[in-house]
Every structure is written in structure tokens, then in C-alpha cells.
Amino acid sequence: MRFGLHLPNFGAVGDPRILADLAAQAESAGWDGFFLWDHILGDPRWRHPMVDPWIALAAVASATREIRLGALVTAVPRRRPWHLARETATLDQLSGGRLTVGVGLGFPAGAEFEHFGEDGAIRRRARRLDEGLAILNGLWSGEPFAFEGEEYTMQETVFLPRPMQRPRPPVWVAAHWPARAPLRRAALWDGVVPEHAGGARLSPMELVELLAYVREHRQAAGAFDAVISGRSLELAEGELERYSAAGASWWLEGIMPAMSLAEVRKRIIAGVPSFASGA
What we know:
By secondary structure, the chain is an alpha/beta fold.
């Protein structure tokens, strides 16, 4: 199991220079990954400082050498996929091939879509996600690529340079358990980031069931990541080991928006959770 940090892109850490400094500290403390939330508003009532995750991740990439990085999860339906293809290829090159691309429908629909006059209907967001992923994959190839779908149409185009990673950066798909459609989508890619609606963590037994369903629908060869997020201090003794045995390949330590910058630094410097204690 690998261990990463999952930080909001707003609040006490809503500054790209702070995030770059925290990422450097995380790398020194032995963390394997540094991942940011992807919100553009979150809640119209908020008055928090908020950063664009991709610009902040460029600062993170420049401040680090080994740690994996990415946005979890990128709201592909509210981004133009060809623009996202440029951003991700550039960031993968800048980071020396350390980008992981987390993708999802975008949440909450009211604040992140409808507030700006965009359609937040879940079926349309799902269609945009699937078509957007197809476009990302095609443009990452560095070969001539065209696309015509219900949501997007693109004339033949070649994007260079390609991402550094081959055949492409790994793609992790967000899923709300027990919904099955997101799991069938995840089976086409490289990993799944599951949770219950509302953000509750899956149990190890639920993860076993989820991964069995993914395997039934997976045709691609190669590794497949299962990513569990939470706060390790809230785990029961031995629970981390049970997640590992259930198939979790990553534990992402949740950094809560209410945490002060001092609290965030303290948690990062304390290092990765211990299997022995589950904390």
C-alpha cells in the first residue's frame, strides 16, 4: 500500500506557494502522493481563498522530485477536454512523469455547474465525462485524432508533446458505492476512488465486493489501483491492514478544510500511517 495526502484547494492551504512548500515537506516525510481537490466554487456562500488546482500543481511539481501528484477528482464535465489534455500533458512533462489524473462528474452540481448557467443534470455530466475521457486519451497519443459525439466535436488534431508516461498518465475514476455505472467506467481505466454518497468511507468488505465487480467488467491488462481516503487516527486497530488485504493500493490521508495551517503541517511531518497501530 502507498500513502498520499488529499488536500482541499481552498481555506488555510488556498495559496499555491503554501501548497508547494507542503508538498516538499510531504516528500521529505516519506509520503508517496500529494493530491488536491478540484473545486471552482464549492458553495456560493464561501469566502475562502481558493486556488486553481492545476496551476497549484505546477508549483507542486516544481518543488518536488519524486512524489506523485494530481487533482482528485477533476470535474471533467466542466472543463473543455482539449484544454484539459494540454494541461495534463504539460504537467506530466513538468513533473517528469508523476501525474495521476483523477476524474469524476463534478460536485456539487448546483454550485459548480448551475450557478454558472451550465447544465448540472447527472446524465449529461456522465456523457461529458465519458466523451471527455475518450478525447483525453486520443490527444495524449500524439497521433492524429478526431472526435464526434453528442457533447463534443473535434476535427483531426495532433497534440505534442505527449505526456511523458506511457501509454498515458494513469486515470483514477471516482465512484459512489453501491452505484454500478461508475465502476464499469473505472474498469476501463487504471483505478477507482470510491466512497459512499456524502463522503463516508467504504468498509474493507465493501471494497472486496466493489473490486470483484470491477474485475468482472475489466478487459485491460495491467495494474488497477483502489484508493481509500480517510483520517488514519479514526481507524480501528488493524483496519489499515484489512484495507490492504481487501485490495486497497493507496491510502489517502484526508486533510480537512477546517484544519489550520499549523495542524496540516504537523500531520504531514508526522509521516505515513503505521500498519501496526492503524494511526
